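A reminder from the course coordinator: this example appears on the midterm review sheet, so study it carefully.

Given structure:
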């Protein structure tokens, strides 16, 4: 089904919804193709291809709302689906804040190519996919006799969708994505099983690196964890490596959301326009990065994408508020979804920052934990390396980093010059002072 056919189908579904009593309706029609290949012990362990068509229908009628979905796009089946969706919606409780956005917010939709789709996607062969996954595992296994387990994978996908609202919005998107992954576990003489991994992805097949470099990185990371142990609890300097899971940054998104603001569950309530964080922290939501992992022309409400500064040198500039919660809060909507996040960078590399550490921990991974959006308190498990006088001393694990988001982000003293490019959250390495760690 091409774009025009999807748009025609969406319009037909909206007409059917109104005929059955809906006041307003919104339709998404999408299709996808995904392929995944996984190797283990030099054999294909998983080979999967899936093609899926789908349609979602949001119904607004007499103050009531429902969201419904189906994979059966035949007109005779869709007719029944729409009628039943509208009928069931009438039994739900009223919510006066549920509606499609005011059409004035649809204005300004850009017509630009974000380079989200590889034109050569259909030319990528099964043989290329299998060879990439196999080469990752082969290369890793050749690098150390300590390896006890290794797996690798290659995946790709193509995604197409159209979005139509009964009050005037119409948009479409098309994208491709490719990724490869390798994971190794090694034998530690102390009985441990440290592991290392690497993952790379991009919109274009040509974005993927050679397997040799990825395998070497994963094995080196695992070997660097040999002998990892707890160290004494205390207050340390902390550098968070750019590729570490985004627990600290992710914890900020909750308090900035319209939902938590409306429900009085945000430690940032009442702080708009105030200097809340370190002046080293500038956070920008940029949906127009060509080939970006979350680049887009519109958000889930149909609002045109826009570049916005969320935090400017520590000053909280904007919350993330969708149409629904803007109505509940009685404020203007800002857009409820974040796209690509970029940061104002520093001037030094990770290695240069580490050389300045007197006594600290280089965090290269977060493990589990939790954060409280109401108070800002958090606690996360970490893996990393003890640093003394600028030198890497020994690997550490089974430790927690804890504190309060407002205090911790005020303790940020430097941003690195090394944004992590394989994510929509393009964070650099970050240097903090006076952070509490719990160990032994």
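Designed residues:
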């Amino acid at each position: 089904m091409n774009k025009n056919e999807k748009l025609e189908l969406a319009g037909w579904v909206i007409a059917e919804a109104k005929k059955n009593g809906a006041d307003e309706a919104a339709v998404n029609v999408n299709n996808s193709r995904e392929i995944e290949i996984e190797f283990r012990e030099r054999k294909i362990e998983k080979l999967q291809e899936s093609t899926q068509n789908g349609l979602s229908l949001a119904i607004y009628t007499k103050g009531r709302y429902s969201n419904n979905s189906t994979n059966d796009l035949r007109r005779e089946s869709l007719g029944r689906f729409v009628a039943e969706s509208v009928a069931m919606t009438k039994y739900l409780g009223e919510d006066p804040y549920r509606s499609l956005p005011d059409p004035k917010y649809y204005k300004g939709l850009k017509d630009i190519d974000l380079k989200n789709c590889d034109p050569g996607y259909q030319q990528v062969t099964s043989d290329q996919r299998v060879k990439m996954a196999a080469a990752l595992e082969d290369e890793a296994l050749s690098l150390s006799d300590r390896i006890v387990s290794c797996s690798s994978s290659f995946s790709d996908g193509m995604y197409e969708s159209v979005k139509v609202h009964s009050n005037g919005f119409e948009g479409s998107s098309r994208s491709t994505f490719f990724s490869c992954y390798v994971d190794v576990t090694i034998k530690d003489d102390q009985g441990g099983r440290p592991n290392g991994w690497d993952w790379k992805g991009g919109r274009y097949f040509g974005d993927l690196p050679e397997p040799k470099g990825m395998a070497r990185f994963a094995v080196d990371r695992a070997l660097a964890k040999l002998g990892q142990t707890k160290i004494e609890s205390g207050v340390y300097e902390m550098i968070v490596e750019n590729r570490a899971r985004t627990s600290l940054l992710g914890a900020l998104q909750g308090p900035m959301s319209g939902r938590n603001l409306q429900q009085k569950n945000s430690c940032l309530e009442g702080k708009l326009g105030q200097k809340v964080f370190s002046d080293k922290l500038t956070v920008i939501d940029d949906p127009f990065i060509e080939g970006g992992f979350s680049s887009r022309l519109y958000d889930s409400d149909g609002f045109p994408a826009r570049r916005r500064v969320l935090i400017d040198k520590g000053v909280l500039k904007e919350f993330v508020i969708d149409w629904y919660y803007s109505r509940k809060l009685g404020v203007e909507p800002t857009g409820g979804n974040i796209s690509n996040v970029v940061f104002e960078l520093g001037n030094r590399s990770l290695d240069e920052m580490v050389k300045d550490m007197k006594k600290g921990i280089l965090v290269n991974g977060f493990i589990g934990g939790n954060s409280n959006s109401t108070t800002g308190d958090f606690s996360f498990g970490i893996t990393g390396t003890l640093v003394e006088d600028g030198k890497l001393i020994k690997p550490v694990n089974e430790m927690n980093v804890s504190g309060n988001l407002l205090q911790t982000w005020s303790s940020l003293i430097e941003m690195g010059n090394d944004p992590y490019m394989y994510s929509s959250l393009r964070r650099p390495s970050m240097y903090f002072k006076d952070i509490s760690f719990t160990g032994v």
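The two ends are 60 Å apart (CA to CA). The longest helix spans residues 3-19.
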